[in-house]
Specification:
- The chain is mostly helical.
- The chain contains two helices and no strands.
- The model has no long low-confidence stretch (mean pLDDT about 90).
Length: about 60
């Protein structure tokens, strides 16, 4: 932060305040993509775990 010029920092603060007037900015597409990735990883891990359990039991 010390290396950022004061003019740049104050300009960014003003822009951030303008963006926050309407509330927090939301990006539903990126949020949905991240959620989808977590769901895919969870389902994949669950399938691996259950297949390993069933193979160990001989089912």
């Amino acid at each position: 932060m010390k290396m950022i010029p004061k003019e740049v920092l104050s300009d960014c603060e003003v822009k951030a305040e303008e963006m926050m007037k309407d509330g927090k900015p939301k990006n539903w597409i990126v949020g949905s993509l991240i959620l989808l990735i977590w769901v895919v990883i969870t389902v994949w891990a669950g399938m691996k775990i259950f297949s390993q359990i069933f193979n160990d039991w001989g089912l």
